[in-house]
Model the fold of this input.
Amino acid sequence: MPRFSSNLAQTSVQGVSTEAEDLILVDGQDAEVGFLDKAACHDGKGVLHRAFSVFLFNGRGEVLIQKRAAGKRLWPSYWSNSCCSHPRRGEALEQAVGRRLGEELGLAARQVQGLAFLYKFKYHAAFGAAGSEHELCSVFRAQLEGEPSVNTTEIDDWAWVAPSVLTHRLRAQAGDFTPWLHLEWPHLLVDMG
Done:
């Protein structure tokens, strides 16, 4: 497992999502086609649903990564991007991003500057018999002022890392990172120029 130096400002909060909450099912063009509970969306080969990923950067140009909690159903204890989740039934994507940044990282809206949509992509990844991610994922980036205060029911560790360090670790220790991070990071590097 990669070792990153981190400053573990943490808060213990109750779980912020349940397997019973309704996610938004979509077609390949991101048109809403229905709703299904989170558990069923991730069972077997998965059902295509709307999701998002956020990459947060600090003033030094480092990116915030998190180690997913050991209790997660899919990719527990894997390192991933700053924040990712799903909008719920009736929730706009930008509202969901703001909600989840607060729930996972304890961030207030004023701390997240310049939230920008980058691109959208569809992917499918299986995690053995535990289930699959089958998502149409919108990717965002933003600048973070201050430090997170992570929800320990969602995140086991976090770290600020230089982009070059993350690129190296993704190659050298590929199995320690979530599949969506592997797919998203090359696009972020292009975006950073």
Residues 179-192 form the longest helix (14 residues). Helices lie at 38-42, 93-105, 163-172, 179-192. The longest strand covers residues 112-126. Confidence is low (pLDDT under 50) at residues 1-14.
